[in-house]
User: Fold these one by one.
Assistant:
Number 1:
Amino acid sequence: MPLDIQIRAAAPHDLSADLLVVGVLPAGKSAALPPTLKPIDEALGGALSRAAAKEEFTAKRDQSLTVSTLGRLPFEKVILLGLGERRSLGAPEVRTFAAKAARAANGDKARSLALSLPAGFETELRAIGEGLELGAYRFTRYLTGDRKPKAELASVVIGAGAKLKPTAKAAVALGQRIGLAVNVARDLSNEPSNVVFPETFAHHAEKVAKDGGLHVQVFDFKEIRKRGMKLIDAVGRGSAHEPRLVHIAYTPKGAKKRLVFVGKGITFDSGGLSIKPAAGMGEMKHDMSGAANVVGLMAAIAAVRPKVEVHAIAALAENMPDGNAYRPGDIWGSLDGKTVEIVNTDAEGRLVLADALAYARSLEPDVLVDNATLTGACVVALGNTCSGWYANDEGTARAFSAALKASGEAMWRMPLLEDLRDGIKSDVADVKQMGERWGGSITAALFLREFTGDTKWVHCDIAGPASLERPTGWMQSKGATGHGVLTFLALVEGAAR
Ligand code: BES
Ligand code: MN
Ligand code: ZN
């Protein structure tokens, strides 16, 4: 259920909820609390200021102070959250602040949250709306009985520290829709593979498109074969669940640019005949996180309605071993026409992407972006809190960097090292599916590049955050967490300006 979010200009003591979270800016070196907290402190007999002095609460970013109100206030608990210096606070930090407040509320079994902001945050209300839904997110639908959360955050009142513009409510509401769009991606990623497989994923995507008034096409296995998407065929043929390709389109009148986003949608990656070890195989239910992201992105696009064309393409298959499965040593054609020598059936993501990229190219995009839980090597390189990205064009790279700055998501640029290109040369086919042992994220990117022609292209390897178990920033649940959606949205909004 979406949160019921209200906003008004109000001081902390004029609000009421199960939990009060107050964003506090540093007041120089002193541990002095802002004057707006005086009535709260007085109601608590000075306990708040005493605790702040004792804990040396100076409102540094991430610093927090919690006091129980013992029935003296309409709140059960008050949490002060340090915001850090104003000049270092952008939309991403404000979003994370709101997410932490919402997460704290759920953690405290609070059904209602009052979020108090200092004056001067009236331009960050969209980020607040985003953060609240992102932080409130939990994946609990399979918990029953005692395991079911007893309480769920349902309503939030935002107390702004200054008079509100008439647009304030709409800004919060838009942010909320964007947060919910990222949560669509997180839900799809977290669903197990017995529930979300190519066919059911496509149903979810169709629903998202219809709810947003977007055009959607689903290619079934017959259509995939008819169109010559031989690599999607190769990867998907060993599964009882047939592959699908989903294409969602947002085509506003007067658009001057077209952006196309492609996602890897392996609804389960067993490795195929090159089967994975048992340990950790369950994480591979998240191997469709890239596809989930592009669907979530389209939900956000439907809310923002920018003046550029946006397309999402999800390449969906389940990678399984069986008598009909593709094999190491096979040579397969592709939609692009190039032939590919298969080395390892566990390097399946780049294969479905190759066909999806070739299809995307036919839409003649100004920018083509793919995202995929592509390689363990990328996790080795960057850890599991940061994705890797590649670009074949410097102007596009600048735009993508700007989008990353706006979103605050952790992604590090990786190089398309030409020296490693020899690794994907094949003696028997046009290209080999994978390179030598080292530089696996880079050779995977070089393989994908073979299918992008001269299109301006960005590739994101999101394998790390996809199996994230630890919350960072607004990310909370285990699972791919929608990492990338906010950056892609920022890229689209940048192109629309
Ligand atoms: N889906 C995996 C990559 C992955 C690994 C994602 C860990 C998230 C966490 C991908 O299909 C895969 O199996 N890649 C292989 C490639 C190898 C066979 C060249 C890998 O990274 O080991
Ligand atoms: Mn694999
Ligand atoms: Zn995979």
Number 2:
Amino acid sequence: MALWDKDFMPREDLRALQLERLRQVVARARAAIPLYRLRFAEKAVTEDDLKSLDDIRRLPFTVKTDLRDAYPFGLFAAPMEDIVRIHCSSGTTGKPIVVGYTRNDIDLWAEVMARTFNAAGITPRDICQVAWGYGLFTGGLGAHYGLERLGAAVIPMSGGNSEKQAMLIQDFGVTVWLGTPSYCLHLIECAAQMGVDLRKTRLRTAVFGAEPWTEEMRREIEERMGVTAYDIYGLTEIIGPGVSAECDRHCGLHVFEDHFYPEIIDPRTLEPIPGDGEGELVLTTLTKTGAPVIRFRTRDITRLYRETCSCGRTLCRMERVGGRTDDMLIIRGVNVFPSQIEAILLSIEGAQPHYQIVVDREGSLDDLEVRVEVEESFFSDKMREMENFARRVVQKIESVLGLRVKVRLMEPGSIERSMGKARRVIDQRKK
Ligand code: DLL
């Protein structure tokens, strides 16, 4: 049986498996983690109360601060002798969130990553360049083990060093590139400066994840790189990448539900959202033994589609994550996600996919400034032409968002490039 046969399991079998695994993980967490023992006792719930999957609602949520407060190893369910790997979340300030993996967890992680890459059409014949960071971040090593499990050739490149990335793509005949979409754009530019047209190389697939990106960005990169792009999703607290992945239909990301149980809740009432309504994604790890988490509130906003995909996978699909509850800017009462601004900018000829959003407060009013790079050929010495262009950008953003904005046109290359996750928002209100 191939690993990915599990993607096509009949729904009833999958649900029975999920319930059995849910009971097991609750029992494990209760036995091994004092915080869960206490929380379950407060709610007077044990694994024996879980008669159907809907009973998951009786269990308490886990939030980021629970993990942070348990720093470093307080939520591990296995003794250190069984932990074989430690990763941390990518937060920039304060203490990180720490996750421990047993041998079992490393194996299941490689399995879900191999299923991820199979869904993207990657085979043992591919040569794959991994440009997510290797280290405490889960992207590099997570992808690495999955590609090896699949039997593909892996180049553990990590992020940055764009000239070398471009050189190896050419010289090694790399067919698959994996990393963040924002770094990919930078790589395309660097390659062009070196005289390398990535469309003319053997590259055919790009796998992107670790940050939000839009359909407009997909089209832009597919065209400039000559690839088909796939979206993959995950987070450190749950395992890293490998929670969900697109198939060749590109209509949502299949959640590896036999390992991760998804729910969608209303972040204010904490009640489940019915049908395929939008809300906050909550995940439970069903099989992890090192650091299992029950009903983790991801803060990522998405929705779940439960009809079978035309690819035949029975796994439900989540919509691409356009933003997090904590990324949402509230500007003069209007909710704005950076991804909305990205989509608008990319629909304007001459605007480049390099942008930053600066929020500031003038008096009691919030101000939104969008800084966007302008294509070289659009950059003009004539003040009037530039003003007209800026006005067009302002009008377009204002008509979609219904919000007054300032637009600052920037010279090509002037906005900071990232080797990993891009920093799109500078919020000066928090100073
Ligand atoms: O970014 C794990 C990962 C690595 C995923 C490589 C995919 C590829 P963290 O650093 O813990 O882990 O960040 C997790 O990043 O909660 C989302 O907000 C965001 N995110 C991850 N993938 C996507 C995606 C890794 N495909 C946080 N689309 C998550 C949108 C994403 N947002």
